[in-house]
């Protein structure tokens, strides 16, 4: 027996991904609907108090005013969002530059250390004509190590 796939489920339930732009649009839509509902309710109350012909004129005038007001708010919001985006972008750029500077400093430090080790290795591996190691560089290295260790010890134990 074959199992059949169930296609009777809600199509929207399949879309489980997060979309902030869609959420923002929905919020704005519901907010506008709420404002319109309040406005119409207020108009209905006013029409009951006054005559119907003046209520229609008032409704048309107020509807235009609400639309203009909403446009002004949306422009302010858009400017605020643009400014917020710009600040965030500048902050990210600054952080990226700091990270790059730190990476460059580490890279230079690593290269310097590598060059020092290579120079020391070259000196330590030098041989005489008969194949014996040159003691001059080995003794110098031992002296340098002792001097560094004696300089560190007094500063640690005061």
Can you walk through the features of this model?
- The chain is mainly alpha-helical and 158 residues long.
- It has a domain at 19-113.
- The chain is built from 3 helices and no strands.
- The protein has helices spanning 20-49, 52-124, 135-156.
- Helix 1 (20-49) packs antiparallel against helix 2 (52-124).
- Residues 66-116 have a biased composition (Basic and acidic residues).
- Residues 1-23, 62-116 are annotated as: Disordered.
- Pfam families: rRNA_processing.
Low-confidence stretches: none
| Helix-strand category | mainly alpha
Oligomer: single chain
Distance N to C terminus? 87 Å
SSE arrangement, N to C:
HHH
Number of helices: 3
Q: Main β-sheet: number of strands, strand sense, barrel status?
A: none
Percentage of β-strand residues: under 5%
**Mean of residue pLDDT?**
81
The shape, in one word, is: rod-shaped
Protein topology:
Layout: H1 20-49, H2 52-124, H3 135-156
How would you briefly describe this protein structure?
The protein has 158 residues and is an all-alpha fold. It has helices at residues 20-49, 52-124, 135-156. It has a domain at 19-113.
Q: Which descriptors would you attach to this protein?
A:
0% strand, mainly alpha, 158 residues
């Amino acid at each position: 027996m074959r199992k059949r796939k169930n296609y009777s489920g809600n199509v929207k339930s399949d879309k489980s991904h997060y979309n902030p732009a869609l959420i923002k649009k929905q919020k704005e839509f519901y907010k506008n609907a709420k404002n319109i509902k309040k406005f119409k309710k207020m108009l209905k109350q006013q029409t009951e108090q006054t005559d119907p012909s003046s209520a229609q004129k008032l409704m048309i005038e107020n509807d235009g005013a609400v639309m203009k007001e909403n446009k002004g708010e949306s422009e302010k919001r858009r400017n605020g969002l643009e400014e917020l985006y710009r600040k965030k972008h500048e902050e990210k750029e600054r952080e990226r530059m700091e990270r790059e500077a730190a990476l460059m400093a580490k890279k230079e430090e690593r290269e310097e250390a590598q060059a020092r080790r290579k120079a020391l290795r070259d000196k330590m591996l030098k041989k005489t004509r008969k194949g014996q190691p040159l003691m001059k560089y080995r003794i110098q290295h031992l002296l340098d190590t002792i001097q560094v260790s004696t300089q560190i010890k007094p500063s640690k134990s005061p």
